[in-house]
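User: ok so my PI wants both of these folded by tonight, can you help

Assistant: No problem, let's get them done. Here's the first:
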Amino acid sequence: MNIPTKGTPSTEPQLCAWVESMATLCQPDAIHWVDGSEEENKSLCDLLVEKGTFTRLNPEKRPNSFLARSKPSDVARVEDRTYICSKREGDAGPTNNWADPSEMKVKLHGKFSGCMKGRTMYVIPFCMGPLDSPLAKIGYEISDSAYVVVNMRIMCHMGDKVSKRYEAEAAGTAPKGRDGYGHFIPCLHSVGVPLEPGQEDDTWPCSDDKYICHFPETREIWSFGSGYGGNALLGKKCLALRIASCIAREHNWMAEHMLILGLEAPTGEKTYVTAAFPSACGKTNLAMLVPPKSYQGWKTTIIGDDIAWLWPHEDGKLHAINPETGYFGVAPGTSYDTNPIAMDSMTENAIFTNVALTDDGDVWWEGMTKEAPAHLIDWKGNDWTPESETPSAHPNARFTAPAEQCPTIDPEWQNPDGVPIDAIVFGGRRPSTMPLVYQAFNWSHGVYVGATMGSEVTAAAIGLKAGVRRDPMAMLPFCGYNMGDYLAHWYDMRRHIKHLPRFFHVNWFRLDNEGDFLWPGFGENMRVLEWIVKRCNGQVAGHETTIGWTPHFEDFNTDELKGFTEEQFDKGMAYNPAEWRAEIISQGELFMNLYDSLPKEMVYQKELFAGRLS
């Protein structure tokens, strides 16, 4: 093909053939092979500023940082346009949107035909996970969005170092050991807005017709129409969870929507935990937790805030890596009061999307400070004051920041061998029923606890049916195959792990009769984590109850926790048989929805629980 090319094209035949076929389909005006260099990044950011996609922030307040504003129609994941294109509908399961792969490919070829006219096709080599990790996944994303390129550079290993590794593997000269050695995952993305000669471009081009499609058998990802977040940064949810979960099931490991947190006791003993929470339950805040002042000598460190890949290590434990190298966090509600570590992580080299712009060239969002500035430019580009009827930042506004800038980043965060996991924590937003913390009896019971967790919603607040919205392991939107088979894989994994981690459930959101939180949360959650660590290390006894092991008040650290009495502790830990009977009944919808593929152990655990309640 005679298309102007920038950068150094690969010489690997399989990759070159794929890129050429995609260029033939999409018909770009130019091809840019991305090298990931600082010079290239600066050039692309300058280009985005020139186009109006980026606003350069005040370099004295926010060095090398930018603000982007998307179209109001392109602000979040589009779950109703996200498809699992497996050969059999049953392999996608009842919780995913399924499409026949052959039919979807025909449809997508029609959408992508000529979609990059007038644009540059970027070829982005990237790797999820440390390059030397046995789980590392190399992919190539083709995109017509420079915004995607500069965000991917923050979120994963990207550029020449990845290209060289892939080419060495394809030639057979690189050390073997990586799952997927010599292969790459092809990812195609377009905003879906071709340009005619002389046509002026939009600052945020995107099509109203969106498709985010995953092909588990061929390990392909095709995304059309959206330039936002996980719809466009295809290494994140698309590869690291939906496709990776399918690969993990076949190769006896796990791709999970989990944070990874390190907890170091004053003795120097280090314990690593993973935790899965549905959205709006404080996952990032917990990953970046700062211990209260009374916890002298304790340290917390972060491996990752969003995704964990776990596998049975040769030492007999479950090990975990974070496949990402950056944070793509929700900005509204983040502040120096709620999450100072996140705030410190985005002081420079950051990209902000759909937040407000201050008059002095910085960013602001709801919850960032107690008082709002007198004047802002809101996320739609309009003047805003505290009297305005709409928020200044979109509720799903995001920051993209390098993980290496995090003050509490763990020294082992890029260890290809991962870190050993001693505890797996689940939790949802529950105003009643669920205690502050309890420990599952064993692996089988723990999987049941994780599978049935969820958050209570009201129809008025969220537009969903009132009740508990179940979100097994917080993976409902991200599992790339049948959720029933996914739970069966969890049960199967215990056969491959010699030293099993302990399972726990937490609930920071229980309310008293007046509607006030019974637990202060945030940094005080360290007290719950301390009990979890001590349980894992056999340093404290638990109280066996109907639902699991719970802490005795005298074994739970309340030093300097002002106003928190044993009575409050008892309320936060209260067990109400009637509420738990209702809990079992409300789980029925999940069980029925997954009935055809639900593992028998789930039913067995439910029956055991019902028997303990009677």
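One down. Here's the second:
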Amino acid sequence: MSEAPEDSASRVTHGVADPVDPAGQAVYDVVVVGAGVVGSAIARELSHHDLRVALIDAADDVGEGTSKANTAILHTGFDATPGTLESRLVRRGYELLKDYAAATGIPVEPLGALLVAWDAEQLAALPGLRAKAEANGYPLTRIIDADEVYRREPRLGPGALGALEVPGESIICPWTATLAYATEAVRAGVDLRLSTRVVDVVPGRDGTPHEIHTGCGVLRARHVVNAAGLWSDELDRRFGHQGFTVTPRRGELMVFDKLARPLVNHILLPVPTSRGKGVLVAPTVYGNVMLGPTAEDLDDKTDTGSSPEGLRFLREKGMKIMPELLREQVTAVYAGLRAATEHRDYQLRSHPEQRYVCVGGIRSTGLTASLAIAEHVMELLAEAGLQAGPGRESAPPRMPGIGEALPRPYQRACLIADDPDYGRVVCHCERVTRGEIRDAMHATVPPRTLDGLRRRTRALNGRCQGFYCGAEVRDLFTHPPAPGQAPLGESEHRASPDGREPGRVPRNGSGPDRAVLGVQEADDAGAGVRERAVEVLVVGAGPAGLAAAAELARAGAGRVEVLDREEQAGGVPRHSHHTGYGIRDLRRVMTGPAYARHYTELAAAAGATVRTGVTATGWAGPLTLETTGPGGLERITAGAVVLATGARERPRSARLVPGTRPAGVYTTGMLQQAVYLRGQSVGKRAVIVGAEHVSYSAVLTLDHAGVRVAAMVTDLPRQQSYAAFRLGAGVRYRFPLLTGTTVTGLVGRARLQGVEVRRADGRVEVIEADTIVFTGDWIPDHELARRGGLDIDPGTLGPSVDTALRTSAPGVFAAGNLLHPVATADVVALDGRHVARSVLAFLSGGPGAADVPGVPLAVQQPLRWVSPGRVGPDGPPPPRDRFTLWTTRFVSRPTIEIVQDGRTLLRRHPRRTLIPNRPISIPAGWRTTVDPERGPVTIIVT
């Protein structure tokens, strides 16, 4: 049976007073200092005996240090130094952790590794590495030639000469491993004392207890285990020892989006060097791809900020290992510190006369070896006189499954049937549900920060970094919902080790609501996946999707259904409270929320069905979408599908802005939701990155929240919005506009303290600020389009479409800012009206794929893209009878020329300067002169 949450929580404390009773007699048998993966494993092992144990850490969460920021590999130990303690413990720990992961649900995927040789010297080293693996008791390695390497990893960069195959290497979730150890320990009676920094130690004499002085009082212990990681040498000196010195070795890593996952089949390792195992490319259990780490020795044990040099180095290495990876979006950049010492082995030392064990110098293999280290420490404690007594059975906890190898809660129909919160997706990028966040907040070891919540659920870890969900997740963290009847992961009977629900007997169903078993075959068939059909399915209830739905329903297209993953329809305008909406499409000026309501009501009045809180999670067929919502799982087949999923701003990580990872970092979308929809406090003094239309929208939002703008910065030589916006903002809000200025880093630990910038003349300065807002730099929300196999335009990164807004898949259309980020809401609403006419033509028997007909359009610098990207003389005119261009730099008195096979189709001299981050329109009359037989059309600006 799981313990009641209040019983468990009573043994998790955060910065409380001295636990010694008034008589001064309360003494722990063992105090473990350091609640990382090794310290938590030791506490778990101790909890199997009748002992009073405390696990303490200066941080506010378990696994907050080195354990949270590593390469997340379950190592075979093939390349350890034979005969070392590390070699023995890694080999033993590998087997122990594999079994424990299966019992608890810690995500593990056995992918195998390829140790790739890129030059003759590395190739010559492979036989020696194979011999080392055999000496370490791992005989399964194999040397393969270059041909086999490329058969197995076809997207590997050129130049690989061969590889050593290590089939047993696996990827693992380091966060869940540490949390599982701590959870089991706390349930078994260990006192977990967080936010408890050791400031001094008075070693006991002649059998008297040690006194551990902390910022929260004094702890007394008969035995002390030093698992303090980066600070283990300093604690060791408190006991009078000088055996080693920890030099923090920073390893920076880049994490790429889930859309990069198909690029990599194995863990791709380099030939190791004396400084470490080098830069690797590896999938993660969360479905991403990781590149790193660097290896840089530092003096500061708290410096976990990324650096420009480190990110540049990783990109150079990544370009050699797998060039295609560098084309994908970066979702996270982080740095971890490893406890490197002057020794080449673990520093596990027992001092029996002091009743003290030091666990130092645990390097990157510490996660794999953790359970074996704990076994070994028990032996050392016994040598030091600890009388642990007989062991007792302890049921391992079943941890929430946050890996991608098994179905997640949003995919499990029976869970949603029992509790609709498992169908309410909050974090759309990572598919984290309200139920999972609720369970984490009421777990045995709950998070105390948003970062802690990230590690337990993956919320906020995705590609948008909170653009959509940041404000709601913050609300759920601050005001968690009441616990469910049986929180997922808190009961041993919620799931079996293979992720299936026990005790469920499938029932046969019939009729339109019958269950369809597939990936959900473990679920109750009566609460399984429903199948149904509609004439038109629109994904996205922003202006484009709602306008399309209204036109289609009004025209009698049949059942027209709009899905939106947000709880309210209307898209971005609903949390953009300034005026200026509706000018082109409605011929009047409205605020964003009023505009959103107008189109929502318009679609409903026309007869369309608008369903909110429903997430399209993937494709089950050419015109069949899989969806998740609080009502369960569905597969919806449509006669035509319109994708209107919009666009988002690139977050800080995707822009590769180095520095620390403090609170106070926003995009405009996240800021607006926090301020207007959630009423949250966001800071006092802000820097805005960007100087385009949306940047001035951020100014208004910050003013509404009572935040002063310290500066607006842009790396371009001029601001890119209307001159009136700049003039009005400058007069009213009186902030400097810094042009030619680049953000080079963020400063601050828990909270942002300053923004480092480099001015056009090379000067570097820090602007004091507790908030930074990254604006603009838009990217389409194209994940559903890419997962559907649609052709993607290399410029816009949205689906490639013709003038009818037909994609490469028959019957699938696209509209709005998914096609051309970013246009104003009224322009994308007109896109919606346009695509509706194309859908009606298709449903009436017309063509549905953009390549029938369509000649591709290409652009040359300084243009980045043109939309639509295909044209044919027999197709309809594009939306608003014009094509949209996007430039990367200012061009005064431009000439725009459109040519095909040496013929000039159009030469135009616009009167206004071409401005980056603002769309340029050109009339579409020239399209009728395109010859389908004469190749691509190119647009040139001079």
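The first strand starts at residue 12 and ends at 14. The first helix runs from residue 5 to 9. Good luck tonight!
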